[in-house]
Design brief:
The chain contains 22 helices and eleven strands. By secondary structure, it is of the alpha/beta class.
Length: about 575
């Protein structure tokens, strides 16, 4: 069977692509049925990748033989279907989505970029070229750069990153639900799948709907630009008929959880509940404790108030870090919404307890691994795990120093005074400690002690966040742990990790699950256990300054940029 539609093409080219593929595949399929009874084998020869892939799907091959004869031509041997069940599974070749997570400063973006280059250079019947989709809660905002550790414009011209700089206004509402909606939209666009409602909409708010449409238009333009950079689409041939493998990379835990496993069962708060929660949180934030004014407010009082709203709300509140006002407000919003709906249901004679009973059940829906229908995904999730956590903590410290050296303090000052620092970014590690340092009481010129305390708080918070990332993903069995040899130079360990992921995604889904993801003796399982064991007894109380050492020129330059007056934001 010749898988080459040019043999069928006549003078009129427009509208022929789907017809050509249909003719080739239909002819091959009926030929296979005809030969099925004799148990024969069929060979498809040609250089048209899409046709060969479609033919292979009908043929239900298991271990295909591919001999590269020329850069444009290949031969693939296809075995006959062994059973109706295997034939059905072959008809449904699920598109791959790659997810790469890891702790701060482990090299996630570098590994993802290297993997995309490998996919681009080594395309075959099972994998397409790859493009990075960022999963970072701060990189989505324009304006922020150093504190977000965002790839520079020059770096993105070489290695495109989607979902970076998609939110313009600092006060634009953007959360895990919005990002997941954008991520699913981007993934479907890259895979050339039909666009369907992913049930993560923002209610009927026209402003939010308009903002979503604006972001999606920007995403479309960025995808087109990325395909040209990667050589998937060129200026001479603008046909966009080649699917691209999404390589989702980032460390924002909640974003990845929403994308992979789906949105949680938390109730969408009503506008009235949101207003009440904001009023109540503001009240407690402005309260005094005892004889002294506490700038952080009455956290204990707010906690007791939430605990009084119900046992489930008490349990959720007790999981929060101290003075996590944002998440405490979110719990209040749900509690007020439940109360509001309960009163309405009681008045209408409806069941008022079901909403509360279903709350925080742990069930999720709408994620990549829980999707259903014709567009199921073959999701391969990886966690880049440092093999030596103590050495990795030193790399984390160096990352923090480099960010300060590059101008984190100046960037934070300029964005804050201009009102362009997003609320989400102001809570992010790096920006938050910088804001605290700039707004400290009684600032002095060349205050080395205050500055070193700022550096220590920054590095400690980053180390603790890295630890939480490891703990979070160790509990997620969907992620395969890929060891990163921290003792080797950066380029070597990045290439090794990318090559390992390349090997893992080349496995069939059955091999991937049985040999790697679910195998208790696999390298992934051993790496996961080693990471947990190393965490026991680790102490992060010693900070070694390398780039901002006392009396160094770099330190003096950074301190000279710190405002001498206390700033109020």
């Amino acid at each position: 069977v010749v898988a080459r539609p040019s043999c069928l093409r006549h003078k009129q080219r427009n509208g022929m692509k789907n017809l050509e593929k249909t003719l080739v595949v239909s002819a091959a399929y009926f030929f296979l049925i005809h030969l099925h009874s004799s148990g024969r084998m069929v060979v498809a020869a040609g250089g048209t990748k899409n046709c060969c892939q479609a033919l292979a799907a009908f043929a239900s091959f298991r271990q295909p033989f591919c001999r590269q004869q020329h850069s444009r031509f290949a031969t693939t041997k296809l075995r006959m279907p062994m059973s109706s069940s295997s034939s059905q599974s072959a008809l449904k070749q699920r598109p791959k989505v790659i997810v790469i997570a890891g702790p701060t400063a482990v090299g996630k973006s570098d590994v993802a970029a290297r993997l995309c280059i490998q996919l681009q250079q080594d395309q075959d019947d099972q994998n397409d070229a790859g493009i990075i989709v960022s999963a970072d809660s701060v990189q989505v905002y324009t304006g922020v750069q150093i504190g977000a550790n965002k790839p520079t414009a020059e770096e993105r011209r070489v290695t495109p990153h989607l979902l970076v700089d998609v939110v313009d206004q600092a006060d634009t509402p953007y959360n895990a639900a919005e990002w997941t909606k954008d991520a699913l939209y981007t993934i479907k666009k890259l895979l050339l799948l039909s666009e369907e409602d992913n049930s993560l909409d923002n209610s009927n708010n026209e402003h939010l709907e308009s903002e979503t449409n604006r972001r999606q238009n920007r995403i479309d333009k960025e995808i087109a630009k990325a395909k040209k950079i990667c050589g998937i689409v060129d200026d001479d041939n603008n046909k966009d008929d080649q699917p691209v493998t999404p390589v989702v990379v980032g460390g924002t835990m909640m974003y990845l959880q929403w994308l992979v496993h789906g949105k949680p069962d938390a109730l969408r708060p009503t506008p009235n509940a949101i207003a009440k929660a904001l009023e109540k949180i503001t009240y407690y934030q402005n309260q005094e404790q005892g004889q002294e004014q506490d700038s952080c407010g009455d956290w204990e009082g707010a906690l007791k108030y939430v605990e009084s709203m119900g046992e489930k709300f008490k349990q959720q509140a007790n999981k929060l870090s101290v003075r996590d006002w944002y998440r405490l407000r979110r719990i209040m919003e749900v509690a007020f919404t439940i109360k509001e709906k309960k009163e309405k249901n009681d008045n209408d004679g409806n069941d008022s307890d079901s909403l509360y009973d279903k709350l925080y059940s742990g069930q999720r829906e709408g994620g990549l691994v829980s999707s259903s229908g014709d567009n199921d995904y073959d999701v391969r999730c990886f966690f880049l795990c440092p093999d030596d956590r103590m050495t990795h903590s030193i790399i984390v410290d160096e990352r923090c120093e480099q960010m300060i050296k590059k101008g984190l303090i100046r960037e934070t000052t300029d964005l804050s005074l201009a009102g362009k620092l997003p609320d989400m970014a102001s809570k992010a590690i790096g920006y938050r400690q910088t804001l605290d340092h700039l707004s400290r009481d009684n600032p002095r010129d060349n205050d080395l002690d205050a500055f070193m305390n700022f550096v220590k708080e920054f590095t400690t918070a980053t180390r603790q966040y890295s630890k939480r990332q490891m703990q979070w993903f160790r509990r997620d069995k969907e992620f395969v742990f890929v060891p990163m040899d921290i003792s080797r130079d950066k380029e070597t360990r990045v290439n090794a990790a990318a090559a390992e992921i390349r090997r893992l995604i080349s496995l069939s889904r059955e091999q991937y699950d049985e040999q790697e993801r679910l195998n208790p003796s696999s390298k992934s399982a051993l790496t996961r256990q080693q990471n947990e064991n190393q965490g026991k007894g680790m102490k992060f109380d010693q900070l070694e300054i390398n780039h901002l050492a006392p009396d160094s020129e770099a330190l003096q330059q950074v301190i000279s940029e710190i405002p001498t007056k206390r700033l109020t934001f």
